Amino acid sequence: MDLMHHSSTFLLPTIPLHHGPSLTYALVVLNQTLPRFAPLLWKHAQLRLCADGGANRVFDEMPLLFPEEDASDVRRRYKPDVIKGDMDSIRKEVLDFYRSLGTEIIDKSHDQDTTDLHKCITYIRDFAPDVNKSSLCILVAGALGGRYDHEMGNLNVLYCFSSLRIVLLSDDSLIYLLPRTHHHEIHIQTSVEGPHCGLIPIGVPSRSSTTTGLRWNLNNTEMRFGGLISSSNIVVGEKVTVQSDTDLLWTISIKKL
Ligand SMILES: Nc1ncnc2c1ncn2[C@@H]1O[C@H](COP(=O)(O)OP(=O)(O)OP(=O)(O)O)[C@@H](O)[C@H]1O
Ligand SMILES: Cc1ncc(C[n+]2csc(CCO)c2C)c(N)n1
User: Fold this and answer.
1) How do the domains of the chain map onto residue ranges?
2) How far is it, in rounded angstroms, from Cα 119 to Cα 192?
3) Does ligand 1 come within 6 angstroms of the Cβ of 150?
4) Does residue 54 line the site of ligand 1, with CB under 6 A?
5) Domain 173-257 carries which CATH code?
6) Cβ contacts of residue 101 below 8 Å, gap of 6+?
7) Which parts of the sequence belong to the Thiamin pyrophosphokinase thiamin-binding domain (predicted)?
8) SS3 of 17, please?
9) CA-CA distances (angstroms) from residue 203 to 33, 102, 183, 247?
10) Rounded distance between C-alpha atoms, residue 167 and residue 143, angstroms
11) Distance (Å, rounded) from C-alpha 62 to C-alpha 183?
């Protein structure tokens, strides 16, 4: 089975060369408080989208992260490429501001069956210019915490697009899917993440999961809701390996500065 490498180098100020797969990043900003490292994610991304009310967050909160600068200068510097969603949360002044700067606005108000995040992922999948999908990584800011129905909707997007690399982020942790189709090698960026971590068999039980590099490793172990799930685990080194008969969620804490 093929090996998939993972590394949270997008949390570093500069992405080291030859350190895991070289990836092209896209960023989706959701309608929650911007993580403190939002400007870093923005810098690493080659395509930046706001999901509906996520545009209000960029407009309102990016200037707060640069208190010594003029707010309108900051807003012009952090101009999303695309705003997509059902447009029931974005304020008119924000829409008008970014439209005047040339942001592409995609109004999908007729679609009330998929979330704004889902709509944004569809855009990236279909229109990310000339990017091999296996080297594309979509970072989603503001995906965790807050309203639980939204949080579950955001996790569901990982399963809806399980062939894409998608990382859900908050200030405190990140989550991505480890597809059962691969063995996984996770390179821990110890300066910015860990040691708390989890492996969660959401969706279906796992009959057999095996890991290395954790304080409490799994050894051909069954995991299911109602039985064992691996929460409150700890990474012990710089490399974790995972193999499983089912898709698992990997989550790891993000360090405060
Ligand atoms: N509290 C939250 N927690 C987690 N994700 C959120 C939260 N609020 C919004 N999001 C994410 O941001 C996206 C855009 O948010 P927005 O508020 O514009 O959505 P919405 O469609 O108006 O939601 P709703 O009508 O259900 O309140 C959502 O699709 C969701 O992915
Ligand atoms: C069974 C079912 N449950 C909830 C919704 C509502 N819904 C889901 S996504 C979405 C768009 C949010 O921007 C809305 C309103 C639905 N359509 N079908």
Assistant:
1) 22-171, 173-257
2) 30
3) yes
4) yes
5) 2.60.120.320
6) 76, 79
7) 182-248
8) coil
9) 28, 41, 19, 8
10) 9
11) 38
Closest atom of ligand 2 to 88 CA is: 13
Taking the centre of ligand 1 as the mean of its atom positions, its distance from the CA of residue 137, in whole angstroms, is 21
Distance 148 CA to ligand 1 centre (A): 10
Ligand of minimum distance to the alpha carbon of 153: 1
Residue nearest atom 1 in ligand 2 by C-alpha distance? 113
| Residues having CB within 6 Å of any atom of ligand 2 | 86, 112-116
pLDDT digits (tens, 9 = 90+) for 46-87: 999 999 999 999 999 999 999 999 999 999 999 999 999 999
Q: Which CATH superfamily is domain 22-171 in?
A: Thiamin pyrophosphokinase, catalytic domain (3.40.50.10240)
Which ligand ends up closest to the CA of 32? 1
Query: Can you tell me the ipTM of this complex?
Result: 0.93
Look up residue 61 and give its DSSP letter.
H
Residue type, 29: V
- How much is the pTM? 0.96
